[in-house]
Design a protein that fits this description.
mainly alpha; Hydantoin permease; 0% strand
Length: 487
């Protein structure tokens, strides 16, 4: 077998490429090798978001304090990602489909899927805004103008084109995009070194010193990514072969996250180097110095804009893909009329264009705190169901996680109660009852604490019709069932 084959997926029909098993299991015949999965995930590694997030953390806690939230994110996301990705690979299911059997029920999972999709709307706009800001700098267009929205729309349509055929077209884009990205980045660093006074780690200091509050704020930013990076990886990890162990899935996550951490440190470097070249108050200069689209356009000119466009397209194909999986699942249980996965991507593009003018870059900290509350609570409930309620307490089969309508309940009230409680506790932080930076931590702990006792008290009755342990998870699931799990 040639080395090249390790970076390609199996052949499949155009229809399956487009639909990408959005509402069914991935069969064994369509599993990918881990290098091919990791290649697709490199689009996430080089996202402009990481430059911006690294810069924001750097301005909060300086050097070497910034290594604390970065290390927490790498370790936490590797562990959570290894667990969730292996569950997905064993079951061949996306997280929205897993949620039907793991704690939420068919219709309950639609709520989790909607929460998941909201994340991708934000990230889609975030990445697109970075590119638009760079183009606006070059073309002299105001970033809040109608012309900037048109620029955003054009770049968004390029991303839509490359995400249309799912994993297969994304694999092609990432395979050829990565070398170009690296070449342009090196050129950018050379131009930066020749034209600007570089700020080394010794100059990455916070003016008023690092406080406990600032460190918790940085950790809160990281906490929003601990689970979300696992979610992204799992959308592709369901294509991993079932024979891959926890160590194997953890290896995929660790390699990806170590590369991300390098990009984040470079974001700190760019922020402290460029902040002196922007005008205005400190807060305005920090916002500009954490906008990589603007920075690369200033440093590299037209080449910087090309670099930003390439980077944005590589990550936004992933945002569109994962967002469409979540919305496909939500609609699948809410309506008998099927809507193809690709049309949900079109909806995400339209929403992104409509919401672009609000300039989401200035709300990154608040958004990550709120989405961290929702996504972290959801996933920790899912993990507690699989490892505690199923594997440890044997309240339901762990070999096969059922997801088909008629075999799972529409609503698992244990999961819905736990999710509502966790989010309510997190909302108190958003409302100012306690510091916001504690909110996502509190919510993700409360969810499982509520869920496990409720499931024990219900003796697993909320799952629906038990699935046989001997049933092949990859068996044909298109045959109809006459069993009604009831409410």
């Amino acid at each position: 077998m040639s080395l090249r084959s390790y970076f390609h997926g199996p052949a499949t029909s155009l229809d399956d490429q487009v639909e990408s098993y959005a509402t069914t299991r991935v069969p064994d015949s369509q599993r990918w090798r881990r290098p091919a999965i990791l290649l697709v995930l490199t689009g996430n590694v080089t996202a402009m978001f990481w430059f911006a997030l690294g810069g924001q953390m750097g301005f909060l806690v300086g050097w070497p304090g910034v290594l604390v939230p970065i290390a927490y994110m790498v370790i936490g996301a590797t562990v959570v990602g290894a667990l969730v990705m292996r569950i997905a690979s064993q079951q061949g299911l996306s997280l929205p489909l897993l949620s039907r059997g793991l704690g939420f029920g068919a219709r309950g999972s639609a709520i989790a899927s909607f929460v998941y999709a909201v994340n991708y709307v934000f990230y889609f706009i975030f990445e697109g805004s970075i590119v638009s800001h760079g183009l606006s700098e070059i073309l002299g267009i105001s970033i809040d103008s109608a012309a900037a929205s048109v620029v955003f729309a054009i770049v968004a349509l390029i991303a839509l084109y490359y995400s249309w055929r799912g994993m297969h077209s994304m694999n092609v884009l990432q395979r050829f995009g990565m070398p170009i990205f690296l070449i342009l980045f090196v050129i950018g660093m050379v131009m930066l070194a020749n034209g600007y006074v570089l700020a080394g780690p010794g100059e990455w200091v916070v003016e008023d010193g690092v406080t406990a509050t600032a460190m918790w704020q940085a950790l809160s930013l990281a906490n929003g990514q601990v689970v979300f990076q696992a979610l992204i990886a799992t959308d592709y990890g369901r294509f991993v072969k079932r024979s891959v162990s926890y160590v194997g899935t953890g290896g995929v996550m660790l390699v990806e996250l170590l590369m991300i951490s390098v990009v984040m440190v470079l974001g700190v470097f760019l922020g402290f180097t460029m902040i002196e070249y922007f005008d205005g108050e400190r807060s305005a200069r920090e916002l500009a110095a954490t906008d990589p689209g603007l920075i690369f356009a200033v440093v590299m000119g037209v080449l910087g804009v090309i670099f930003a466009i390439l980077t944005q397209v590589r990550i936004n194909v992933m945002n569109l893909y994962s967002g469409s999986l979540a919305l496909s699942n939500a609609w699948d249980v809410l309506s008998p009329k099927r809507v193809g996965r690709q049309w949900w991507m079109v909806l995400l593009v339209v929403l992104g264009i409509a919401l672009y003018p609000i300039n989401v870059l200035q709300y990154t900290d608040k958004f990550l705190a709120v989405t961290g509350i929702m996504t972290n609570t959801w996933i920790f409930i899912l993990l507690s169901d699989y490892f505690i309620c199923r594997k440890l307490l044997k309240l339901a089969p762990s070999t096969l996680v059922e997801y088909r309508e008629g075999r799972v309940k529409n609503w698992n009230y244990c999961g819905m109660t736990a999710l509502a409680t966790g989010i309510a506790v997190g909302a108190l932080g958003v409302a100012g009852v306690y510091p916001l930076y504690f909110a996502s931590f509190a919510a993700m702990l409360v969810g499982p604490i509520v869920y496990v006792p409720l499931t024990i008290l219900s003796e697993g009755s909320q799952y629906g019709l038990p699935a046989a342990e001997s049933e092949d998870p990859m068996a044909d699931e298109h045959k109809s069932t006459t069993v009604d799990a009831g409410e």
